[in-house]
Amino acid sequence: MNTPAFEQTPFRVGIDLGGTKTEALLLSPDGTVMLRERRATPLDQGYRAVVAVVAETVRQALSRVPAGAPCTVGVGIPGSSDERTGLVRNANSTCLIGRSLQGDLEQELGRAVVLRNDADCFTLAECRQGAGLGYGLVFGVIMGTGCGGGICIDGRVRQGPHRIAGEWGHLSVDPEGAQCYCGNRGCVETKISGSGVEAAFARDYGERLPMERIVAGARLGEPRCCAAVERFLDDFGRCLGGLISILDPDAVVLGGGLSNIFELYTAGIERVRRYAFHDDLSTPILKNRLGDSAGVFGAAWIGDTKGGFL
After folding, report:
1. Which of 15, 257, 270, 295 lies at a C-alpha separation of 20 to 30 Å from 33?
2. Cβ contact 182:80 at 8 Å
3. What is the pTM assigned to this prediction?
4. What is the C-alpha separation between 255 and 143, in angstroms, rounded?
5. What per-residue confidence (pLDDT) applies to 163?
6. In the prediction, which pLDDT does 145 show?
7. Cβ 41 vs Cβ 20: under 8 Å
């Protein structure tokens, strides 16, 4: 008698807990997508509401798993979990900070849950089946509401002893810059995330516009928007050029909503070449292939013992 596939390989639930949406994915043992859904993340309702939405989303996915079949649950979060205390830290969804999210979810669900940084999940996914496939050392970037990064070495994501490897978004590049929620000034996140560019525009012009409107205005030649996008591209070049000078990766993969700004792959790359410490920089700077699904695929894979992490 043949052994059923699910007795050899588990089903996998992945949750991508974002600032605006929570996405769920269920993968069968052979990798087939069995369920995908999105819900709004109720950050404005507080921590307990977030836990409730994540738990309900996991339950919905688990209801599709055959009775008795093994299944892992992985959750990607915009921060990391302290191994000593189990408490979330460094999260730009600040209601999570200082909370035992893993423990609370495990208590709510009655099963093991694995938490990892969302940028690490993104990087893992893109290196397994996306734009980073086939490259030895890849730096994955998320540029959205916040800004994060992950380092993948030969198909496995480096976390480091403090689980902060690749936390590029909180490198302070301007000590006179805007205050960051992390307590420092002028972090990369304050320069090249959507929220950072919007906040800078509001400080300069007394009007808050969404990033999409700023980019669209620049393409139409609106002077204020042109200046904001020019600064954004220059900051992108300076920040990523410096990172490449330190890490010298085989490739960089861009993700998050801002990765859809095509100017990053033209003028942005030229700025990176200007600031990197090499006179003939050839590092591929690639758009993701998995779109905004990359993080949730990575989250689905992290429930394994190692889950592709170092």
Report:
1. 257
2. no
3. 0.86
4. 6
5. 81
6. 83
7. yes
- Fold matches, 5-120 and 133-288: yes
Mean pLDDT in the chain? 90
168-218 tens-digit pLDDT: 899 999 999 999 988 899 999 999 999 999 999 999 999 999 999 999 999
Query: pLDDT by residue (tens digit) across 139-154?
Result: 999 998 889 899 999 9
Superfamily for 133-288? ATPase, nucleotide binding domain (3.30.420.40)
Sorted by sequence, the CB contacts under 8 Å of residue 41 that are 6+ apart come out as: 17, 18, 19, 20, 21, 22, 50, 53, 93
**How many residues in total does the chain contain?**
310
pLDDT at 1 over 60: no
Give the model's confidence band at 159: pLDDT under 50 very low, under 70 low, under 90 confident, else very high. Answer: confident
Q: Which amino acid is at 77?
A: I
Domain 5-120: top CATH class: alpha beta
Q: Residues 157, 204: contact at Cβ < 8 Å?
A: no
Question: Exposure of 232 by Cβ count < 10 A (0-12 exposed, 13-18 middle, 19+ buried)?
Answer: buried
